[in-house]
Amino acid sequence: MTPSPTTAELIETLREAMIDADNGQLLHANQITAIEQAIAFLQHQAPEVERLRGALNDVCDTIGYLRRMAEERGSKLDGAQAYALCLDPQFIRSIARKALETETAP
Questions:
Q1: How far is CA 57 from the centre of its chain?
Q2: Under DSSP, is residue 95 helix (H, G, I), strand (E, B) or coil?
Q3: What are the Cα distances from residue 78, in Å, to 11, 61, 71, 89?
Q4: 105 Cβ contact partners less than 8 Å away, ≥ 6 residues apart
Q5: Distance of CA 105 to the CA centre of its chain
Q6: pLDDT tens digits, 22-81
Q7: Which residues contact 9 (CB under 8 A, 6 or more apart)?
Q8: Which residues are CB-neighbours of 57 under 8 A, at least 6 positions away?
Q9: What is the distance between the alpha carbons of residues 96 and 39, in angstroms, rounded to a whole number?
Q10: What's the rounded Cα separation, in Å, for the pair 41 and 105?
Q11: Helices marked H in the chain — which ranges?
Q12: Is pLDDT above 80 for 21?
């Protein structure tokens, strides 16, 4: 059984495959395998990327995040308190840290 290529090796093989395809050459079996591995890797990473993108949106739109949290709890958003939290760097960091500490299930 051959070991899986490193990310750098996979990227290099993909780069070579793109050049070959651009030049009208047929792809080699290892290039096709690299493409398949890259697709599988990206499909596996997609949920994590979307989760982190959502967390980044929560950091950028803290009011929206607070509004969503209030709705999930069935309560109303207190405007003054929400505004104060939006100005609190510790609170905003806590949103980011929570996202970084949580991983999606495989």
A1: 12
A2: helix
A3: 49, 16, 12, 19
A4: none
A5: 13
A6: 888 887 888 888 888 888 888 888 898 899 999 999 999 999 999 999 999 999 988 899
A7: none
A8: 64, 65
A9: 28
A10: 15
A11: 7-22, 29-60, 62-73, 79-86, 89-101
A12: yes
Judge whether 55 and 99 are in contact, CB under 8 Å.
yes
Q: What is the mean pLDDT of residues 13-27?
A: 83
pLDDT at 2: 54
Query: Quick one: which of 39, 33, 48, 43 has its CA closest to 100?
Result: 48
- At residue 40's C-alpha, the angle toward residues 36 and 46, to 5°, is 140
Q: What is the pLDDT of residue 1?
A: 46
Identify which has the larger pLDDT, 96 or 11: 96
If 0-12 CB within 10 Å is exposed, 13-18 middle and 19+ buried, where does residue 22 land?
Answer: exposed
Work out the pLDDT band at 105, boundaries 50, 70, 90. Answer: low
